[in-house]
Amino acid sequence: MTDPIKEIAVKRSVEAVFTGGTVRWSANGQKLFSTCTNVVKVIDLVDNSASYTIGDPEDELRITCTAVDKNRNRLLIAYNNQVIREYTIPLDPSTSKPELARTWKTMHLAPILVMEFNEEGNLLATGSADHIVKIWNLTEQQCTHTLKGPAVVSAVLFGKNDKLVVGYIEGQLHLYNIMKGAPKKHVMTWSNHNSHITGLLMVPDSRVVVALSRDQTMSIHETETQETLRVLPLYESIESGTIGHNGNLFTVGEEGIVKEFVIETAKLVRKKRISSGQIDHICYDDVSNRFLAISAEQNLILLDFDNLRVSRQIVGFHDEIYSTCLLGKNESYMAVASNTSEIRLYDTKTLDCQLIHGHTESVLSVVSPSWDTSLLASCSKDNSIIIWKLVTSSEESAATLVPLCAATGHANTVTALAVSNSGRAPFLASVSSDCTIKLWGLGDYGKLKEAKIDTEKDFVEQLPKLSCSSTMVAHGKDVNCIDISESDALIATGGMDKLVKLWQVDTQKMQLGIAGTLSGHRRGVGDVKFAKNSHKLASCSGDMTIKIWNISEKTCLQTISGHTCAVFRVIFIRNDSQVMSADSAGIIKIWTIKTADCESSVDGHTDKIWSLSKNGDESEFVINFLMSDDNPDELNSAIRRLDTRQIEILLQFCVKWNTNTRTSPVAQRVFYEIIHIVPPDELVSMPGAYGYIESLLPYTQRHMDRLDRAKQDVSLFDFVWRQMRSAV
C-alpha cells in the first residue's frame, strides 16, 4: 500500500464505559446499564457493536444513580439537580432508539443516592442525602410518601405486605409501613449496626431482610414481626452483597475476595480472590446465572456462578494511556499501558480485557518484537522491566500474559523500550529518567519458562533476571524516547536536553557505542522514529515541530511546522513518504514529506496523545476510491462486502467529501451505490442516517445548481460559437 493517505477515520474506539456509580442488569441478562458521568452506557455482552449510549454527552448534569424496571423495560436516571428522567428501553436497538418518556423534579433538597423499584414495578423509592425517602406511584404519577430519617440514606428495599426498609450511613435501620391509610408509617428502628449500611437484601420466598454493614457484621430481620433474628460477624468491612439462586449470601469488600455464606449461620462456604484491591459492588443475574462485580479501579468483572471463574472483564475507565502495541497471531491482541500498575490485554475483536498484574507502579511502555509476537516487554515507574509471554488457555480460548523474566538496574523510572527488528541476535534497549540507556541481550529467550509467582511476595524479585550487557549515559536530562533502526545497527534516543542522539550497536558483543548527536530542537524531544527503507530519522518536540534527519550525514533535511502545541509522537507511513504526528491537544496530522504539506488533520482525542502506532499493513489508514474506468463495477462489489458499521463510516466520509467541489463526484457516486445496495428500511435504521442525508442535501443542491449554471454557460458558448461560424 503506497498510495498517499489523504484522510483517516476512527475505525473503532475503546472508550470509558463506567466512571463510578451504579451498574444494572437488563431483564434478559444480556446487557449492562452503567453510569458514565453524564450518560448511561448500554453494554451489549453478546454483540459489542450493538452497545449504545442513553443521554446527551454534552449535558452538564451528573448522574447520581439509576434504576431498571425489568417488568416494563424502562430506565430511570437521577441527576445531581434532583431531576429524574425516564427512558423506554428498545427491545431491538438496531430498529429503534431509547426515548425520553418523561421528566420530573423530585423536590429532594440534595442529590438522590439510591433508587429501587418494588417487585411489581409500579412503585419507586428514592433515597437522598437530605435524609428523606420518597415513594412514587408511577402509575398515578404522584408522590405518596415522604419519610424523614436520621441521616443520609444509603440503601432502600421494598419488603412484603407494603413494607419498606431504609438503611442510613450511620448504621440505623428503619422499617416503614407504606400501606395506604396506615395509621403509623415508621413502625420500627433497628440499631444493630454502628457503621454505614451498604446493602439490604430480601431472602427469597420469605419476609426476612438481611442488612450488611461496614462494621463487619450482618443482621437478619423479620419485617412482619419486626424481630431481629440474628446478628452475625463476617470479619470484613462489607461493601456489597447479593443472594444467589441457591439462597446463599455472596459478599465483597476491602479484601477483593468474593465470599459465599450460609445466611442462617454465616458459615463460609467458599471464597475466591478476583481483584488485588477493594470490590465495591456485586449483583447476581438469575437469567444468565452470572455475577457482576465492580472493582474500586472501576473495572466490571463477570463471574460464573458455579466456579466463580472470571469469564470477562470490562475496563470502565483508563485514565491516561501511555503506550499501546499489537501482539499475537494476526495482531489479535492489544496491550495497553495506562496510569495504573496493571497491563490491560484486549482481544481486538471482542474488546474483552484481562488485567495483568506485575508492576507496582504505572506502566509507561509496552513493546512486542516482530520476530515473536507472543512476547511482550513492559517498563514502569517502579524502575523495572518485565518480559511476558502471551498464552491462550484451552478454556474458552481466553488469553493472558505470563511472566518470564525481569530486568532491573535502572535507578529511576524506565521511560521507554525498544526491541530489535531481527531475531538472529535479539536484544532489548531501555532508557530512563536516570539519563542512561541500557542494552539487554535476549539470546536465550526461547529457554525461558513461565515463572511461578507467590502473590504474597514481591513480584519482580521472584523472576529470573536479564543481565545488562552495556550501559551509557545518554543525555543530560530525562530520556523520553528510543527507537531501533531496521538493520539493528543504530539506536536513536531523545531527551529533555533537546538533543537526539545516535548509538551504534555491536550485536556480536552486545555493546553500545556513540554514533553522533543531532541538535536543532528548541524544546525537549518527545519521540524519534527511523524510516524503514531509507536513511532518515524523524523526531518531534515540544517546540511544535517535526524534523526529518539524514542519519548518514547527520543533517536536518526538513523542519515541518503546523502543530500549535507540543508534538508528542511521530511515525513513518506509506513507504516512508509520509509521517503521522500527534500532539498534546489530541490532534493527529498526516504530512507528505516531499512537499511538507499537511494532507489531513483529525481531532483524534480531547487531550494529550501519548501513543501512536500502526498495524502491520497500515490498513487503518487506507482509502481506495475504486472508481477506475477500467473496472466500473469494482466500487459496487467493494461496498457489497462492507458490514453495516463500515457503511455508516463510509456515509460519514461521503458527507465530508460532498462539501468539497473537487471530491463531490466521489461522494455522489459512493452515495449512489449505497442507496442502490442497502434496502431503504435498513438504511434509515442506521444511527445518524437522517443526519447524514440532511447534511448531503444542501451541498448536493449547491453542486446541482453549479452544474446547471455550467450547462447553461456551455449552451450559451455553443450558441455564440455557431452564430460566429454562420456569420463567417
Automatic annotation (TrEMBL):
GO cellular component: 90S preribosome; small-subunit processome
Protein keywords: Nucleus, Repeat, WD repeat
Record's protein name: U3 small nucleolar RNA-associated protein 13 C-terminal domain-containing protein
SUPFAM superfamilies linked to this entry: Nucleoporin domain (SSF117289), WD40 repeat-like (SSF50978)
Subcellular localization(s) per the UniProt record: Nucleus, Nucleolus
Record-annotated U3 small nucleolar RNA-associated protein 13 C-terminal domain positions: 630-724
Pfam family name, one: WD40
PANTHER family: TRANSDUCIN BETA-LIKE 3, TRANSDUCIN BETA-LIKE PROTEIN 3
One term of GO molecular function: U3 snoRNA binding
Residue ranges crossing the lipid bilayer per the database entry: none
Keyword Lyase: no
Keyword field contains tRNA processing: no
GO BP annotation list: endonucleolytic cleavage in 5'-ETS of tricistronic rRNA transcript (SSU-rRNA, 5.8S rRNA, LSU-rRNA); endonucleolytic cleavage to generate mature 5'-end of SSU-rRNA from (SSU-rRNA, 5.8S rRNA, LSU-rRNA)
Renumbered ranges of WD repeats: 105-146, 356-398, 407-442, 472-513, 518-559, 560-601
